[in-house]
Specification:
Helices cover about 55% and strands about 15% of the residues. About 35% of the residues are buried.
Length: about 650
């Protein structure tokens, strides 16, 4: 995009004329106010000062490498002058010559050249005063830099003086020489500084603001990907920076030539408006998948067209994309106004700013297309207020969401505190109930153990005494009492283990093993024990008591009925998570029991062992062959409470 400068008074005059014209009063008033506002923002580059403005010069074309002006071919032109009107399709150099007379002794003067598009050399009376860095590709781009030169008195002559400006450019990029003023140095210097402020300094400010806001909202989007409006705003600002660099860059870097630089700038301009349209949709909470897909398909095609277009078609492609981009801007503004009409105040204000920016874009399009004879572009003055407005609106939305989240967090904090207090009270009540249930459970378990073991033995012994008429031998009575004593000790051992913490099965087995070994030794029975891996087996009290009672019952049967001289006891934790209990004796055996058969129905002890095995989820097998008996218990450990 190339800029040409015009007097802001023209805008003020247009605003006053529009205010007194016919049409809808409200619309006419708003449009007039907008134009007057833009006139106030415009720089006073051509303030009314006592300077000599020279509007007619002579021009002649030449080649890229010509360092001297041609001898012929000069014709008068009016500045500002776009040489495409005089020499269509000419690429290279055009010389502009201005001659004026000075009466009397020369005085120091100022020279103010509004712009040279794209690069040039300025000479006065054959003395070169300024030369751009590169007059051939890669061509310097000083088109947006107003030039002020001091013409000292010794350089000037009484009588005829000559100003010669060599301009290098392309027909596709509006090659031209801007207005030229020679006069008092002070006013011209002030006008040049005002123009430089508007053309360069303000654009540097725009770049800084745009890049800062883009990075800020990019960081927000990276932290909150669901806020896609932030991401599209950051992409819009990135494209805006890529386009705005064109106003301050004085070379084609990082591109090798002017065509590539212009193509990249145009593509950034197209993407800027496309990302702006996406930002509007996401900001308003809309998703139109099909229309968005069509939009990006067209934008991709436009960027590819301008990047691949040959030089001879570049002007037509850029003009076409300028019109298409302006149409997209206007459509976006209309959609934004429609969607924001019933939205929040921030949305309505932002849509109004977008509408003003759309009007400025239309004006700039007319300037770019040479339909308005001006070099004043409004986009530089309306884009940054719109950008800041968008940023403030997004920031306001972010702050509002943050405050809502903070209020929600406060409510959650109070709710969690209340729930925590209620849960604490509930846990205290539950803990008290669990303690009560545990005590009751212990009492119930103790009652069951006494009933199943000692109670059953006591009742059996009472029945034996009642059925026996003759006095029982002392030894038999002593055996009854010892049996009840052993069962009571077993209950006490398991109960104490439960009170003093979890004990392994090996710890619980030790007292029973000691008592039974003494009993076998007293009656001349050899007892051989094999215990392995029980230190890692921890069962709860009920399970431990069931295992030990099965073992106690099997050993008691050996002592009472087998008439054996040797007993082998194995209690082993096997691989695969099983506990194997095996009691083998060399006694008389069980005549009624076959290998692997269930215990005989008349045996109370065997039925008790079977019941306990079922309660443990274990398999009990009694094998009696000839003069030996084997009682085996296979118990799975996995899945049992308390095992490891």
């Amino acid at each position: 995009m190339d800029h040409r400068f015009a007097h802001p008074a023209h805008l003020r005059q247009a605003g006053r004329q529009l205010a007194h014209a016919g049409g809808a009063p409200r619309a006419r008033a708003w449009l007039a106010a907008l134009i007057l506002l833009l006139a106030c923002l415009a720089p006073r580059a051509q303030a009314d000062t006592p300077t000599a403005w020279l509007g007619t010069v002579e021009a002649a074309p030449s080649g890229w490498l010509d360092e001297r002006p041609p001898a012929s071919g000069w014709q008068p032109v009016q500045v500002p002058s776009d040489w495409s009107a005089h020499w269509p399709g000419h690429n290279g150099v055009v010389w502009y010559r201005l001659r004026w007379d000075i009466a009397g002794a020369p005085q120091t003067l100022g020279l103010y050249v509004h712009y040279v598009m794209s690069a040039g050399v300025i000479s006065v009376n054959g003395v070169e005063l300024e030369r751009d860095e590169s007059l051939v590709e890669p061509l310097s781009r000083t088109w947006n830099r107003p030039r002020f030169l001091l013409l000292p008195a010794p350089l000037l002559h009484t009588g005829r003086n000559e100003l010669l400006i060599r301009v290098s450019g392309y027909a596709a990029y509006q090659p031209a020489l801007g207005p030229v003023e020679i006069g008092e140095p002070g006013p011209l210097r002030a006008a040049q500084r005002a123009s430089q402020l508007a053309r360069e300094d303000m654009n540097w400010l725009h770049l800084g603001i745009g890049a800062t806001l883009g990075c800020f909202f990019l960081a927000l989007w990276l932290m909150r990907r669901q806020e896609s409006a932030y991401g599209w705003y950051a992409a819009r600002q990135a494209a805006w920076v890529g386009f705005t660099v064109n106003f301050v860059n004085t070379s084609t870097w990082p591109f090798p030539h002017t065509d590539a630089y212009a193509a990249a700038t145009t593509a950034a301009y197209v993407l800027y408006h496309g990302c702006g349209a996406m930002f509007v949709l996401r900001f308003m909470g809309r998703r139109w998948p099909r229309r968005e897909a069509v939009l990006w398909l067209l934008l991709s095609g436009a960027c590819a067209a301008v990047l691949l277009a040959p030089h001879e078609y570049m002007k037509a492609v850029r003009h076409t994309l300028a019109w298409a981009s302006s149409a997209l801007v206007v459509a976006t503004a209309v959609v934004f106004l429609f969607l924001a009409w019933r939205g929040s105040l921030a949305q309505r204000l932002l849509s109004a700013a977008m509408a003003a920016n759309a009007l400025a874009t239309v004006h700039d399009l007319l300037v770019f297309s040479d339909l308005i004879d001006s070099n004043f572009y409004l986009a530089s003055y309306t884009a940054w207020p719109t950008t800041i407005g968008m940023a403030l609106t997004l920031a306001w939305t972010f702050v509002a969401n943050t405050r809502r989240i903070e209020r929600f967090n406060d409510e959650m904090h109070h709710s969690v505190a209340a729930a925590r207090a209620e849960l604490k009270a509930s846990l205290a009540r539950q803990h008290a109930l669990e303690l009560l249930h545990a005590r009751l459970g212990e009492r119930v378990n103790l009652a069951h153990d006494l009933h199943d073991g000692l109670g059953g033995m006591l009742i059996g012994n009472i029945n034996t005494l009642e059925r026996t008429r003759a006095p029982l031998p002392p030894q038999q009575v002593l055996d009854m009492l010892r049996t009840m004593r052993d069962d009571l000790r077993l209950i006490i051992d398991t109960a104490s283990a439960q009170h003093h913490g979890e004990l392994s099965l090996a710890d619980l087995l030790a007292p029973l093993r000691y008592r039974m070994s003494q009993l076998f030794e007293l009656h001349g029975i050899e007892a051989h024990w094999r215990v392995s891996g029980l230190d890692e087996v921890q069962l709860d009290a009920t399970q431990s008591l069931d295992v030990l009672r099965v073992l106690q019952e099997a050993l008691t049967n050996v002592f009472k009925h087998s008439r054996a001289t040797r007993v082998d006891v194995a209690l082993v934790r096997e691989e695969g998570g099983h506990l194997r209990l095996e009691v083998h004796d060399n006694g008389v055996g069980l005549e009624s029991s076959a290998a692997g058969a269930p215990p005989p129905p008349g045996g109370t002890g065997l039925r008790s062992m079977q019941v306990r095995a079922q309660r443990l989820g274990a398999r009990l097998a009694v094998d009696s062959r000839g003069s030996s008996t084997t009682v085996a218990l296979h118990m799975p450990l996995r899945g049992l409470r308390g095992t490891s």
